[in-house]
Amino acid sequence: MNALLRPLVALVSGLLFGFGLALSGMLDPARVQGFLDPFGAWDPSLAFVLGGAVIISTAGYFVSGRMQSPAFDKAFDLPTRTNVDCPLVAGAAIFGLGWGLAGFCPGPALASLSLGLPQTFVFTAAMLLGMVAHDRIWRKRPRPLVGAAT
User: Fold this and answer.
1) How many CA atoms within 13 Å lie on the side-chain side of 28?
2) 79's torsion region: left (phi>0), alpha (psi -120 to 50) or beta?
3) pTM of the entire structure?
4) Domain boundaries, the chain
5) Would you call 24 exposed, middle or buried from its count of C-beta atoms within 10 A (0-12, 13-18, 19+)?
6) How many alpha carbons lie under 13 Å from residue 127 in its C-beta half-sphere?
7) What is the SS3 string spanning the chain?
8) Contact (Cβ atoms closer than 8 angstroms) between residue 125 and residue 32
9) Where does residue 73 fall: left (phi above 0), alpha (psi -120 to 50 degrees), or beta otherwise?
10) Residues 6+ apart with CB under 8 A from 24
């Protein structure tokens, strides 16, 4: 039963996330770029979307702290590293620059594919190419995510 429910819950969660992005207008890269331009035509709507996400995430964090295990897994996969190093800072900077220039981050980019806009396909292809290049060129071998099942 768990083997069937887990992908179904993941699909419903992804659809809900995509619907929320569409409803909030966050599939429009101009809206995201407008938020990142406080001295131009500033659009504060992303702040409300992010604020809502923080509230929901905080509630989920506190609820999960009272649970012995997640509903569809044996244990919680929590990060074990706490240090801030150069790769983390460089990755955050590259992410931020890409987000500001393109107006997309990975989740909204994938949801925006449904709109059929050419720039979305170009961004998504470049993002996927960058991920593959990172794992194949900059790292000699792909490493699993911290806490991921092997």
Assistant:
1) 11
2) beta
3) 0.70
4) 2-138
5) middle
6) 18
7) CHHHHHHHHHHHHHHHHHHHHHHHCCCCHHHHHHHCCCCCCCCCHHHHHHHHHHHHHHHHHHHHHCCCCCCCCCCCCCCCCCCCCHHHHHHHHHHHHHHHHHCCCHHHHHHHHHHCCHHHHHHHHHHHHHHHHHHHHHCCCCCCCCCCCC
8) no
9) beta
10) 45, 48, 49
Residue owning tokens 């059929």: 116
From first to last of its 150 residues, what are the pLDDT tens digits of the chain? 567 888 899 899 989 988 988 888 888 888 888 888 888 888 898 899 889 999 999 999 899 889 998 888 888 888 888 889 888 898 899 888 888 888 888 888 888 888 888 889 999 999 899 888 877 777 665 455 555 554
Separation of alpha carbons 36 and 99, rounded Å: 9
